[in-house]
Amino acid sequence: MKLFLFVLLVVAMAAANAQTVVNNRIFIGKTDSVSSKILNEKRKVWIYLPQGYDDPAFTKQRYPVVYLLDGDGHFASVTGMIQQLSEVNGNMVCPDMIVVAIPNTDRTRDLTPTRSLVGPDGKKIPGFETSGGNEKFISFIQNELIPHIDSTYLTAPYKMLIGHSFGGLTVMNIVVNHTDMFNSYVAIDPSMWWDGRKLLNQAHEVMKQKKFAGKSLYLAIANTMPIGMDTQRVRKDTSGTTGHIRSILDLADILKANSNNGLNFAYRYYNEDNHGSVPLLAEYDALHFLFGFYKFPDDLGSKLYDPTAKIDVAGIIDKHYSDISARLGYKILPPEGQINQLGYFYMQSNEPEKAYTMFNLNIKNYPTSENVFDSMGDYYDNKKDKAKAIEFYTKALKVGENKDTRDKLNKLMK
Asked: Model-level pTM?
């Protein structure tokens, strides 16, 4: 819709944020709620919607959904990271995604799979009396929260679950016992020591027997060892102070030993981070791992922004998004905004054939968008083809009224 003079400006225009300013206050999301019959309580959730979600100039799209446990603790960091890696500075590390963060009411109750009163050192811990409600909480997510989100928001079939500590324990419980609930999982320093390693022992058997084709898991391990220990020495330790990290290292061994079960798995040990600081880096690394296929390979990306490269631009883009669609399990079209920017880049680079190809690709993929016809009108206006420019500006206004388009049409009509 607007002509960009340089490729750097094209990239900079993609840096607009998804935040909303109201009365000089910045909001990054909204609240929603579900009255749960399963949990017998009203549960609030925090919702983040991508930048273009409500933009009337573009065709409505559906977005993958990230479900975030301990949502009140991680909402700001995860939403900011997803926005940065999917939108800002032209980044395409991961897709734009909706985030559904679940704040806690009774954390111990909801995030522990069995009732237990003791910590990893075997000592009784006050506050564990309500433990063991994880299956009910999982049922709430599966049977009440996810249907509500899918019926209320523009969601795609792809779903991810992120959890830290007890939340990571919940992630692993779902991986082991409710595998098909999500497509990908991020377990950050999970409390696999819980209840005498009961879930860890179950995972040992399930990972040998079950198939996990199409599922992905990223496991993060923090440095919770006493000073002077390393990951080799700690395995031989038997004290309660190392029970947490030993249980996670054992989980990593189980996952590695069963690499033929189809699970797409990676893990990392974060030597410089403790249990509290590890989520931020782990989430960043997890997004890179889980969506390693999403962005254009560097060689192709550089060719797309080389106007002199002799390439089949539309063919490269179509193939890339066909591959992404196969990976995510549903059809994904090349983003309208990205293709639009490429079209203007080629037009300003004096590559009219490539520019036309991009604008025409958008018209084919997004025929209900006012923007795509306006951009083709700009293309013909740039070529001094007044009749065709009027034709496409008129088509744009039939789809939706826009002041900029109307002004350009009136100018040509005069």
From this structure: 0.88
